[in-house]
Design a protein that fits this description.
Low-confidence stretches: 75-82
Mean pLDDT: 79
CATH class of one domain: Mainly Alpha
Number of strands: 2
Helix content: 40-55%
Shape: elongated
Strand content: 5-15%
Number of helices: 6
Largest sheet: 2 strands, antiparallel
Radius of gyration: 29 Å
Strand order of the largest sheet: 1-2
Length: about 140
């Protein structure tokens, strides 16, 4: 079974016309027409839109005819169970929390006075200008 046949199977399964299928996955209607006529082959973007809009469509089934359509319930249940057990990954804007058990700096460490002295400071501005301060 080729990719074109699998696309037709998806459209028939959801009882859609080619126009409503195109509107659902947010592609031009002419793209569906060209794909179904065999004029063009689907792009990766097209395939990913189908998989995103129709969660029952398995990516490997659509691309390689491996697996089944619609997805089997066991595979869906397994993925939801695994996601509950795993720790949630921090987002970009989540606050970083430091554990109280581990001190950030060892309090027994002694610091010696540095012999380094400041020589130059350069300030860079957003307009491309800069200021330089020497000691």
């Amino acid at each position: 079974m080729d990719l074109l046949t699998r696309l037709k199977k998806i459209i028939a399964h959801y009882d859609l016309t080619s126009s409503t299928f195109a509107d659902t996955i947010e592609v031009p209607r002419s793209s569906i027409s060209h794909l179904l006529s065999g004029r063009n082959k689907p792009s990766l973007d097209f395939v990913m839109k189908v998989v995103d809009k129709f969660p029952e469509v398995d990516l490997y089934w659509l691309l390689y005819n491996e697996g089944s359509f619609p997805k089997k319930e066991k595979a869906i249940e397994k993925s939801t169970v695994n996601s509950k057990d795993e720790k949630e990954a921090p987002s970009l804007f989540s606050k970083n929390t430091v554990s109280e058990e581990e001190p950030a700096i060892n309090s027994n460490t002694q610091f010696s006075a540095s012999t380094k002295k400041l020589r130059k400071v350069v300030l860079l501005y957003t307009d491309g200008s800069f200021e330089e301060f020497n000691q």
